[in-house]
From TrEMBL, chain A:
<protein>
    <recommendedName>
        <fullName>Phosphoribosylformylglycinamidine synthase subunit PurS</fullName>
        <ecNumber>6.3.5.3</ecNumber>
    </recommendedName>
</protein>
<dbReference type="GO" id="GO:0005524">
    <property type="term" value="F:ATP binding"/>
</dbReference>
<comment type="similarity">
    <text>Belongs to the PurS family.</text>
</comment>
<keyword id="KW-0658">Purine biosynthesis</keyword>
<keyword id="KW-0436">Ligase</keyword>
<dbReference type="InterPro" id="IPR003850">
    <property type="entry name" value="PurS"/>
</dbReference>
<dbReference type="InterPro" id="IPR036604">
    <property type="entry name" value="PurS-like_sf"/>
</dbReference>
<keyword id="KW-0067">ATP-binding</keyword>
<dbReference type="Pfam" id="PF02700">
    <property type="entry name" value="PurS"/>
</dbReference>
<dbReference type="GO" id="GO:0004642">
    <property type="term" value="F:phosphoribosylformylglycinamidine synthase activity"/>
</dbReference>
<comment type="subunit">
    <text>Part of the FGAM synthase complex composed of 1 PurL, 1 PurQ and 2 PurS subunits.</text>
</comment>
<comment type="function">
    <text>Part of the phosphoribosylformylglycinamidine synthase complex involved in the purines biosynthetic pathway. Catalyzes the ATP-dependent conversion of formylglycinamide ribonucleotide (FGAR) and glutamine to yield formylglycinamidine ribonucleotide (FGAM) and glutamate. The FGAM synthase complex is composed of three subunits. PurQ produces an ammonia molecule by converting glutamine to glutamate. PurL transfers the ammonia molecule to FGAR to form FGAM in an ATP-dependent manner.</text>
</comment>
<comment type="pathway">
    <text>Purine metabolism; IMP biosynthesis via de novo pathway; 5-amino-1-(5-phospho-D-ribosyl)imidazole from N(2)-formyl-N(1)-(5-phospho-D-ribosyl)glycinamide: step 1/2.</text>
</comment>
<keyword id="KW-0547">Nucleotide-binding</keyword>
<keyword id="KW-0963">Cytoplasm</keyword>
<dbReference type="GO" id="GO:0005737">
    <property type="term" value="C:cytoplasm"/>
</dbReference>
<dbReference type="GO" id="GO:0006189">
    <property type="term" value="P:'de novo' IMP biosynthetic process"/>
</dbReference>
Length: 79, 221
């Protein structure tokens, strides 16, 4: 079963990379981009076929390694 | 002083650290591989050196912090052992939960490599007791922008746990923080590299004074 973990910066945490992307978009003529926040997507291919178990396992992985909860939030989606 | 230096795949300051420690202590430090599950007996100091452990994959220091040897390093620290993490070593100690906060991409987005003037923000630790008010060590990092929530910053300041601050903030770190101490003041994480300014031929000797100071404060303790 495949599970997707979306990792995003917590609100209030400055994102210098997102800011650089925003400036680059402006330079390309994309006006009106008021904010860019960059994150990560991690797809996990898990042995289980139990969606609840897969979500629980992925959340544990996200807590222990995949995300840094000082600066990041995560969400788990079965795909 | 009996010291050990941990080497991970991608560490690149471990050899400089060996040289700096041997010069300061007169005794070659022991090398410990990341897959080792125990540390040598009778250590006074464990050093987590700089580099790009595991290619900085996922987050700087994240994979190394979960390497087998880190359980032993955390145990050593919790028993009151002295632990020094420099640059990527600082990132690893944070990821391992021994120090608070996070180290993010430099605010200017550029990798910075230069001698950096620092203020010694506290002398209340074995690492900093013998130092003067200022020091210059090399910085060489892309992700040294220290952040923490307001409560953690207040605690670090209130408990006098900021060890070094930058003179002229190079990377956006909150409160100019370049290095911090653990609650028991025995774990120091710092972005600047004292081991890289360890000889006049390298452009300075403030780093040699850092290690000599650590040795002398341990001897008088």
């Amino acid at each position: 079963m495949k599970v997707r973990v979306d990792i995003t910066l917590k609100p209030g945490v400055l994102d210098p990379q997102g800011e650089a992307v925003r400036h680059a978009l402006g330079a390309l003529g994309f006006d009106g981009v008021q904010g860019v926040r960059q994150g990560k997507v991690i797809e996990l291919d898990l042995a289980t076929e139990d969606a609840d178990l897969a979500k629980t396992q992925a959340a544990q992985m996200a807590e222990k390694l995949l995300s840094n909860q000082v600066i990041e939030n995560f969400t788990v989606t079965v795909i | 002083m009996k010291a050990a230096v941990i080497t991970f795949p991608g560490s690149n300051c471990d050899r400089d650290m060996h040289v700096a420690l041997e010069r300061a202590t007169g005794q070659a430090p022991l090398g410990v591989w990341h897959k080792d599950t125990t540390l040598p007996d009778g250590l006074d100091l464990v050093v987590v050196p700089g580099g790009f452990s595991f290619g900085d994959y996922l987050r700087c220091g994240a994979i190394a912090a979960r390497a087998p040897v880190m359980n032993a390093v955390v145990d050593f620290a919790l028993r009151g052992g002295l632990v020094l993490g420099v640059c990527n070593g600082f990132q690893i100690l944070i990821e391992a939960g021994l120090l608070p906060g996070a180290l993010m991409r430099n605010s200017g987005l550029k990798y910075i490599c230069k001698p950096q003037a620092l203020r010694v923000a506290t002398h209340d630790s074995a690492f900093t007791a013998a130092l003067g008010e200022t020091a210059t060590y090399t910085i060489a990092h892309h992700d040294g922008n220290f952040i923490a929530d307001a409560q953690t910053l207040d605690r670090l300041t209130g408990e006098d746990r900021v060890a070094f601050t930058y003179e002229g903030n190079p990377n956006g770190s909150l409160n100019d923080i370049a290095g911090i101490l653990s609650e028991n003041r025995r774990v120091l994480g710092m972005m600047p590299h004292p081991e890289r300014l360890n000889d006049p031929a390298l452009g300075g000797t403030d780093g040699a004074a850092f290690f000599a100071g650590l040795v002398s404060s341990l001897e008088t303790a």
